[in-house]
Design brief:
17 helices; 6-stranded mixed sheet; alpha+beta; 742 residues; 9-stranded antiparallel sheet; Beta-galactosidase, Chain A, domain 5; single chain
């Protein structure tokens, strides 16, 4: 279990590739807020699990992987023995509730499987999952099995988050129901169907948020053995009589459409198969996915690489029933025709490397995710492509309108048609008054600081997104649209202060912010970062950006200083998204806007420094340990950076067909691409021999500092000749810059 440094945002449970069910233990119930006041300690529980905790509250079915904000934790089950308790108790006194102590020595985690012993109950809990079904197997110490079903539990919970819960006992081995929550996903519908391997003997429930009006239901004892239950935050319990094996298998199917949809998913994906058969089936699925790459390296290197690859195939997640029905952004039920519908789009993070990696290795998924985004735009009341989208809801987190990057990249690499529908979705989003600062950005060519606290970073991000629209329109033959957005893509120039040679917030009047600190990570016009990092955020026009810095000499000095000069803690002490372990000098690898920066040396006369610093990042920021990932993985972005960089190339500017060359981390990797294989070799590569002397593709030397998508898809052999000294006299062609077209 390789997790997130100090944050525990990576869940250790069971899931299938791209599955919506991510079945995992929850280790505490810290609320998001109390009486509206944010509780900072909740940040550690974005994935519900903290390695340092000593108790498990239960096992819930939905999670976000490595995010810095959270939701979900739906449909929590907890097996127990003895007296029924319907509150979770506390970590300090677990015996006051249904939670249990546990020991890490009893935990086992592998792709598609999780196991732990619940110490207080002497119950062995085993978990596996399909894409839409979570499967539990509990082995009890006695011949009676019981479990808690907490429909009020959730991650980032607070009083009133659960709007309604409903539960039916269909027969003695089948339950159905739903819950509706109001969290980051403003209205999240989670329907379920639960099948038991042993018949129910008795059951009941309590409601922790008693209704002020209960109508004439009061005529009956609805809390005991009553098969039609409803309430604000129900906690139900079920007792069963076990067979001689003392085991209870619980299968939980989910749907965002209906209870019958959940039941259909449950039956289609699990009927007629035992727990072990389902576990083996999911393990085979993961083995096939992970075998897309075969590397040579140390055991620690293999663990880190395959864990990273695993992380890139958790989110986004399939969001449709087995029959193709799904809940849309308009809350209506739609049917996916000719594509698979996905959700959980952490686009501020994942457009950089996660989606490009899928477009290279999993182009069908890449196309389907892009198609899902266009359907979201069509269903949106605001006519917007997603910003941060989960469970049929827009979450509005972070800045930019980066879905256009995913569309442009999928069109360039994954076969997504550059249709009028795609261009219309891009334009509608790029001109929307609902995007923060967009009206001002269009009027002034930048976002004014007196109108938006993150004006400088917004301007830089919008300019790159504008370039994506330009690139798509140009290749689709829409010259008018291309010309408009080509000009907008140059707006990054408007926030470069020529006196400083750095990006800086500017007021509506045209004046620059006074008393400006390029190192401060908050309050200086940048979101979750500082000018020292964000000034390098012009991936579509690096050569133009170099001129804004004052020329190559000054640009290289700034790059060198970023990696070599430590950032004083006072600049990030109150920023919960940046911590010391995420830093290398002042370079913030643990937060995504900086991920392309080590590759920018490729546009200078000192390209060998890319190989040097990329290997430093790989060595320092990724380790085979519980807390070995230094920063938020953010739905696979940190991990996708590792996968690309360890292969020896990186998509600095998604939307182009180019990957900027670095240097492989391993001596050999055989990669499945398209319908063939690509062998990447770097004989003798190590910390000392980290520099590239030459690169050959199928025996022919590359004379570019990049490799194209089409070249990778040719397959064959990509050979890096390594050396222990920088090679300073290689004549090679620079990667793409917009300025070269002007």
């Amino acid at each position: 279990m390789i997790g997130t440094k100090g944050m525990g945002h990576t869940f250790p449970g069971a899931c299938a590739p791209f599955g919506i069910v991510q079945l995992s233990p929850e280790t505490d119930t810290v609320p998001h807020n109390l009486d509206g006041r944010y509780q900072p300690e909740v940040y550690a529980y974005c994935a519900g699990y903290q390695y340092d905790d000593k108790t498990i509250v239960g096992f819930s079915h939905t999670h976000l992987s490595g995010t810095g904000h959270s939701d979900l934790g739906d449909i929590l089950l907890m097996p127990t023995t003895g007296k029924i308790q319907t509150n979770p108790g506390t970590a300090a006194a677990p015996e006051t509730g249904y939670r249990s102590r546990f020991d890490h020595k009893t935990e086992k985690a592998s792709p598609g499987y999780y196991e732990v012993m619940l110490t207080d109950y002497d119950i062995r809990a085993q978990l596996t999952a399909t894409q839409r079904v979570g499967v539990h197997k509990y082995t009890f110490p006695c011949d009676e099995g019981q479990f808690i079903l907490d429909l009020g539990h959730g991650i980032y919970n607070y009083e009133g988050k659960t709007l309604w819960t409903y539960l039916r006992v269909e027969n003695d081995t089948l339950l159905t129901g739903y819950r509706i929550t109001n969290g980051w996903a403003r209205q999240n519908y989670t329907y379920f169907a639960i099948a038991l391997s042993q018949p129910i003997q008795s059951y009941g429930y309590t409601d922790t948020q008693r209704m002020k009006y209960n109508g004439f239901w009061r005529k009956m004892d609805i809390h005991h053995n009553f098969p039609d239950m409803a309430g604000r935050e129900m906690v139900a319990y079920f007792r069963t009589k076990l067979s001689a094996e003392r085991q209870l298998t619980v299968r939980v199917g989910l749907s965002a459409v209906s209870m019958s949809g959940a039941l259909n998913n449950l039956r289609a994906e699990t009927d007629g198969r035992s727990f072990e058969q389902l576990r083996q089936q999911t393990e085979r699925m993961w083995a096939d996915e992970l075998n897309i790459a075969r590397i040579e390296g140390t055991e620690d290197q293999k663990a880190m690489f395959y864990t990273s690859l695993y992380h890139t195939m958790i989110n986004p997640s399939v969001y449709m029933d087995i029959d193709g029905q799904y809940r849309g952004n308009d809350m209506e039920i739609h049917r996916a025709d000719g594509f698979r519908n996905y959700t959980i789009f952490s686009l501020w993070d994942t457009y950089r490397a996660e989606h490009p990696l899928l477009n290279l290795l999993k182009p069908q998924q890449g196309r389907d995710m892009a198609e899902s985004m266009m359907r979201i735009q069509q269903q949106s009341a605001l006519h917007l492509l997603p910003i941060w989208y989960l469970m049929a809801n827009e979450g509005w987190c972070m800045s930019g309108y980066h879905a256009v990057s995913v569309l442009a990249d999928a069109a360039e690499k994954a076969g997504l048609p550059r249709s009028e529908k795609m261009l219309a979705a891009m334009k509608s989003t790029a001109t929307s008054p609902w995007i923060e600062g967009m009206k001002d950005y269009i009027q002034y060519g930048y976002v004014p600081y007196d109108r938006c606290g993150t004006s400088a970073s917004n301007t830089l991000e919008y300019a790159y997104d504008d370039w994506c629209v330009y690139a798509a329109a140009q290749k689709a033959g829409n010259e008018e649209m291309a010309a408009n957005f080509r000009q907008r893509a140059l707006n990054y120039r408007n926030v470069f202060n020529p006196t400083l040679g750095l990006a800086c917030p500017k007021y509506k009047s045209g004046e620059w912010k006074k008393d400006f600190s390029p190192l401060q990570t908050y309050g200086e016009g940048f979101i979750e970062g500082n000018s020292a990092n964000y000034s390098f955020h012009v991936p579509h026009d690096v050569r133009g950006m170099i001129q804004c810095f004052g020329g190559e000499k000054r640009f290289i000095q700034r790059l060198d200083a970023l990696f070599q000069e430590d950032l004083d803690e006072k600049y990030y002490a109150e920023n919960e998204d940046i911590e010391k372990e995420c830093l290398m000098g002042g370079y913030v690898h643990g937060n995504e806007p900086s991920h392309h920066i080590p590759y920018l040396y490729a546009w200078t006369s000192q390209p060998w420094k890319t190989a040097y610093w990329v290997r430093e990042v790989l060595n320092r920021m990724y380790r085979n340990a519980i807390d070995g990932l230094h920063g938020n993985d953010d739905c696979g972005q940190m991990s996708a950076w590792y996968v690309f960089s360890s292969l020896g190339f990186y998509p600095v500017c998604p939307g182009t067909d180019q990957y900027v060359l670095g240097a492989p981390y391993f001596p050999k990797c055989v990669l499945r691409v398209g319908n063939t294989t690509l062998e990447i070799s770097a004989e003798g590569v190590c910390d000392k021999r980290r520099y590239v002397k030459s690169v050959r593709l199928n025996g022919k030397e590359l004379t570019t500092r990049y490799i194209t998508h089409a070249q990778l898809l040719q397959g064959g052999k990509l050979e890096f000749v390594m050396t222990d000294k920088p090679v300073r006299n290689r004549r090679t062609t620079l990667p793409y810059s917009l300025s070269d077209e002007l």
